[in-house]
Write a structure and sequence with these properties.
- The complex is a heterodimer.
- Chain A is mainly α.
- Chain A has a two-stranded antiparallel sheet.
- The radius of gyration of chain A is 23 Å and the shape is flat.
- In chain B, strands 1-3-2-4-6-5-10-11-9-7-8 form an 11-stranded mixed beta sheet, sandwiched between helices.
- In chain B, helix 5 runs parallel beside helix 6 and helix 9 packs across helix 12.
- Classes of the chains: A mainly alpha, B alpha/beta.
- Chains A and B meet through helix 1 and helix 2 of A and helix 9, helix 10, helix 11 and helix 12 of B.
């Protein structure tokens, strides 16, 4: 039984903002299905009552003082931009 | 001169006595790169002009007696560590034009404060996803011991450049074995520090709960010097730990009498090749001779580590790599009609297959309806794996086993099969999940002349014991003094 369908792969690609061709969708469906099938070995373990680990260090919220600091200049921040205009990043139209 | 000839201490002494200059060292580095890098393929970007100017400046001041330990020494930096004004690509076409980064990673700032000289940026698997450097979008780095073989990954070129004598030492990053596995394959020393020991600020994030930057060197003492320089709390990384950094080099006494070593049966069992097992058992024999004791133990959840890792690391990657959208930096697709199309096409054109595969796996594992079954389940298994380590390290000082189940494999051999490739990291991944420190150092060679790595794992923030244990063994062998014959190198 397959764990993930081609339609699901296309949906996931859309969520991840990736454009994939039909051929790629076929290839990734097979590969992701293999990997997910492999990952299902975790179901052999009873994890009821086990706390999930998000992080190995015993850290709670790390706070700092909220004070203004000089960091990067606007001109510098824009210098690697693919397109810019009037001191801002320029992107294609968002609304049709 | 050759960078192969001396240890860090010897170079410090020669610089101090003015027997050599920083310019000599930097010349030797670029000379060696010009001789062998067409075979090794380690560097994506060289920093030659700036490095030579820096060398002249350092030579003008000279190495005073209070100079930092890395003064004038040529270093290579993995290309996912951000360097101000020096191109940083993560070996991805997405960042092919990222020529002028705005700031230095904290580790790079510390290297710069310590007056080491950055020689260039080192190849890797794209965004650190891979175990062979074949996932670089530029070229595959080769193993200096036999250029038909991979150097490992993802810090493959960080290890290969040190093994080939192109740089004196290097920085890599390790998410599931990416420092230790290439160090093992290339016959050099690589350390993954405790999670939180080294600032990740300026390391392009792959899996934030697992990533650590660490040193790659030709011997243990040099590695300890480099960690002393880069470790420590950083307000710019909220996950960096506020824990004192001891002097690791002072602790290298050679004394391991009474040391209690645990050897997990899962690390010397099925799937570990005979030559690797033999080399590790020979190393354990040395430890017995040195007065240490070892016992077999079990890390029963080890076999679940690879599945756990691929779910968690890919989930974190899918979130971290969302920043590559073609808006603020990087290569944007041509002529997109609207914003959504621009995002999708820029990312699809910029990322290679392994990166896309992991982003999609992670997106799937985090998506509505699958989160509990995959992501949360993996987080719970992570707890079990971490508990295994905590329990064993309660009773023993260190855990020892191989770094990898086999020596290096041939280029092209595993590249089409993601699951086989992932299995390379079966002995290194559990360490990242548990967050503990581990080193790989040379412990012999296969009959084909390929290096074999010994892995020593320690308690949280106890790199000192890991270094001391590694160093004591190293003093009894000459594996670390072997050199590849690449390009007529001195042996």
């Amino acid at each position: 039984m397959s764990r993930i369908s081609k339609e699901q792969v296309k949906h996931v690609a859309h969520l991840a903002r990736l454009a994939i061709s039909e051929d790629e969708a076929d290839k990734f469906t097979k590969q992701l299905d293999d990997i997910i099938t492999y990952a299902e070995q975790l179901n052999e373990l009873d994890t009821s009552g086990v706390e999930p680990t998000t992080h190995v260090l015993d850290l709670k919220n790390v706070m700092r003082k909220d004070e203004p600091k000089k960091w990067l200049e606007q001109e510098d921040v824009l210098k690697n931009a693919p397109e810019k205009q009037d001191g801002q990043f320029k992107v294609p139209s968002v609304l049709e | 001169m050759s960078l192969f000839e001396y240890t860090l201490r010897e170079l410090q002494d020669k610089l101090h006595k003015q027997e050599i200059t920083v310019t000599d060292l930097v010349d030797a580095s670029y000379q060696r790169i010009s001789e062998v890098d067409d075979q090794v393929n380690a560097f994506i970007t060289l920093n030659e002009e700036a490095a030579r100017i820096q060398a002249q400046e350092l030579d003008q001041t000279g190495r005073g007696s209070d100079a930092p330990s890395l003064f004038g020494l040529p270093i290579g930096v993995k290309d996912n560590i951000v360097t101000k004004h020096l191109r940083t690509t993560c070996a991805s076409q997405f960042l092919d034009n990222f020529d002028d980064p705005l700031y230095d990673a904290t580790v790079v700032r510390k290297l710069s404060d310590a007056k080491s000289v950055t020689i260039g940026k080192l190849n890797m698997d794209e965004f650190a996803m891979g175990s062979s450097n074949e996932n670089s979008s530029y070229f595959a780095t080769r193993n200096p011991w036999n250029t038909d073989y991979v150097p490992g990954g993802s810090s493959g070129a960080s290890a290969a450049s040190v093994a080939a004598g192109e740089v004196f030492f290097s920085l890599g990053s390790d998410t599931g074995g990416s420092i230790r596995q290439p160090a093992a394959f290339c016959g050099v020393v690589g350390l993954k520090p405790t999670y939180g020991r080294v600032s990740r600020f300026g390391l392009v994030a792959f899996a934030s709960s697992l990533d650590q930057i660490g040193p790659i060197t030709r011997n243990v003492e040099d590695n300890a010097f480099l960690l002393e320089t880069i470790a420590g709390h950083d307000p710019m990384d909220t996950t960096s730990a506020d824990v004192d950094v001891p002097s690791y080099t002072k602790d290298l006494t050679g004394d391991v009498s009474g040391l209690r070593i645990a050897v997990p049966k899962e690390y010397v069992g099925e799937g570990v090749s005979p030559e690797v097992k033999e080399a590790v058992l020979a190393a354990l024999k040395k430890y017995e001779e040195l007065g240490a004791t070892w016992e077999e133990v079990s890390l029963p959840h080890s076999r679940y580590a690879v599945a756990t890792y691929y779910l968690l690391a890919s989930s974190e990657a899918s979130a971290n790599l969302a920043r590559f959208d073609g808006v603020r930096y990087g290569v944007r697709t041509e002529n997109a009609e609207n914003m959504l199309e621009m995002f999708k096409r820029s990312r699809s054109e910029g990322f290679g297959d392994e990166v896309k595969r992991r982003i999609m796996l992670g997106t799937f594992a985090l998506s509505s309806g699958y989160y509990d079954a995959y992501y949360k389940k993996a987080q719970q298994v992570r707890t079990l794996i971490k508990n295994d380590f905590d329990q064993v390290l309660n009773d023993y000082d260190v855990i020892i086993g191989p770094t990898t189940p086999t020596p290096a494999f041939k280029i092209g051999e595993q590249v089409d099969d993601p699951l086989t490739m992932y299995a390379n990291d079966i002995l290194t991944i559990p360490v990242n999940l548990a967050g503990v420190p581990a080193i790989s150092l040379p412990c012999g060679f296969s009959p084909d002349g390929l290096p074999i790595g010994l892995q020593i794992i320690g308690r949280h923030f106890d790199e000192a014991t890991v270094f001391r244990t590694a160093h004591a063994y190293e003093q009894t062998t000459d594996h670390h003094q072997q050199r590849p014959s690449l390009g007529g190198a001195q042996t």
